[in-house]
Design a protein that fits this description.
alpha/beta, Rossmann fold, 4-stranded parallel sheet, 4-stranded antiparallel sheet, 17% strand
């Protein structure tokens, strides 16, 4: 079935296309626009071509998005080659560019951005009536409440915002109840212990140092039955010597603490 008006638009302007289609159809003007009128199982491009060829008016909802849309440009090109009456209706204050400018340079525009939407729709109805040679009083036009189309368009954003609020509220309640408390002291202690460094003993020249002063200095010394490992008096080196005080050796030249021997290995941090 042929339609009176083919509506060309960018999918990003779907709420506006819905409002325009509803206005025209409530006033007895048959419209075709995708994806609503794409028959199941049909090729998209084939349906578009047939619809443009069968319409009497090609209505272009022109915006930043449609100006940059390759699909909309192909539809405009087909409408021009089919010698259809083209009515470009501005949705945004955008100047046509490139091929779009070429096709639309001689076409009369509906530029009513300074008017309320319902007045824009009323003027559009008058223009379409003129092309279709429909004689009726403009006071008889039915202009639907267009707010519902924008409420529908905002619904996904509202749902996303509500979901985010719920997640944040759950995190707040869990934190307040202590379920998201910091790790326990034992866990922190285990983690700290795992950061100690395993050290391979390398023989060096004999160095001065005593274990007695370190043993009395916060216990910064340990022994494994054969050797005593201890921090130097200045706290800047690690030493070892045998239990009888012989074979003193500097193991490293760096500040150390938490000296310990475990399973034949020397650990410190």
């Amino acid at each position: 079935m042929n339609h009176d008006v083919f509506i060309s638009y960018s999918h990003k302007n779907k709420p506006m296309a819905d409002a325009v289609c509803a206005t025209l159809e409530q006033n007895g003007i048959r419209c075709w626009y995708a994806p609503r009128d794409i028959a199941p199982g049909r090729e998209w491009a084939e349906c578009i071509i047939e619809a443009i060829e069968g319409c009497r008016v090609f209505l272009l909802l022109f915006s930043d998005y449609s100006n940059a849309s390759a699909q909309v440009l192909r539809e405009v090109s087909k409408a021009v080659s089919s010698q259809k009456v083209i009515i470009p209706m501005k949705v945004t204050d955008t100047v046509p560019s490139g091929s779009m400018e070429y096709y639309l340079s001689t076409v009369h525009w509906l530029d009513m951005l300074d008017q309320p939407l319902q007045e824009q729709l009323r003027t559009l109805l008058m223009r379409v009536d003129s092309v279709l040679q429909i004689n009726r009083d403009a006071d008889s036009y039915v202009i639907p409440n267009t707010k519902r189309f924008w409420r529908k368009a905002r619904l996904p954003y509202i749902i996303s915002a509500a979901a985010l609020i719920v997640v944040l509220a759950m995190v707040f309640l869990l934190a307040k109840s202590g379920l998201l408390a910091r790790p326990s002291a034992s866990v922190s202690k285990d983690k700290a212990s795992s950061s100690k460094t395993a050290f391979t003993v390398v023989s060096t020249e004999d160095k001065l140092g005593t274990s007695i002063s370190n043993a009395n200095n916060n216990g910064l010394a340990t022994e494994d039955g054969t050797f005593i490992y201890y921090q130097s008096n200045d706290g800047m080196s690690l030493y070892r010597m045998r239990m009888d005080g012989s074979e003193k050796q500097q193991l490293c030249n760096m500040p150390v603490r938490d000296i310990n021997v475990y399973d034949g290995k020397l650990y410190f941090s």
